[in-house]
Design goal:
Elements (H helix, E strand, L loop, with lengths): L6 E7 H10 L2 E3 L1 H11 L1 E11 L9 H9 L3 E6 L1 E4 L5 E4 L3 H11 L5 E5 L6 H9 L3 E6 L10 H6 L2 E4 H8 E3 L6
Parallel strand pairs: 1-3, 1-7, 3-4, 7-8, 8-9
Antiparallel strand pairs: 2-10, 5-6
GO molecular function: RNA nuclease activity
Length: 180
């Protein structure tokens, strides 16, 4: 599946990966993740996408974003949008799909293999477009949760699917008992 001479890029849908890892009762070890991919291929770039709440004194995602930025990841953020739903409740939205799609399509000509950490079925067409450029696509998410975090159409479109649960021994760590 991975070849030592492949030019590889990783695209991480931050909120989707966080949700899947949490459902599997694990945290991600991003340093071990980078090392794992570097052992398997020529890692060109590792992107991490997340929406951030601006103006808050403390944001729980800020320490992670800072660490990733200093440790080999290209971090892409945008502010969340606040809106009121039909029931009058205040909600926030921070979809990064367009940013992931644009970056993946722009970088595709320089790659042999793309790894997408997301189970979002909206990415099926993006995967198909990248494959049309001759790039293999591996999707990492999980079927081991109820409901599964991977959309069936995305899993079927990918050249390969790896279950995040099976990779936790390589770059995960069990959630600590004190973690919320």
């Amino acid at each position: 599946m991975f070849h030592p001479t492949d030019r590889l890029a990783i695209f991480i849908d931050g909120s989707n990966l966080y949700s899947a890892a949490r459902a599997l009762q694990h945290d991600m070890d991003f340093r071990r993740m980078l090392d794992w991919f570097r052992e398997k291929s020529i890692l060109i770039r590792a992107y991490y996408y997340t929406a951030v709440v601006e103006g808050e004194e403390f944001s729980p995602v800020k320490p992670l974003v800072d660490w990733l930025d200093y440790n080999g990841f290209s971090v892409v953020t945008k502010p969340v949008k606040r809106f009121t739903d039909t029931a009058g409740h205040s909600r926030i939205k921070g979809n990064m799909d367009m940013e992931i799609a644009v970056d993946m399509l722009e970088l595709a000509p320089a790659l042999d293999h793309v790894v997408l950490f997301s189970g979002d079925g909206d990415f099926r067409r993006l995967v198909q477009a990248v494959q049309a450029k001759g790039v293999r696509v591996t999707v990492i998410s999980t079927q081991k949760t109820q409901p599964p975090h991977i959309a069936d159409e995305l899993r079927r479109q990918a050249d390969a699917f790896l279950d995040l649960n099976d990779l936790m021994a390589d770059f995960g760590r069990p959630k600590s008992a004190t973690a919320q």
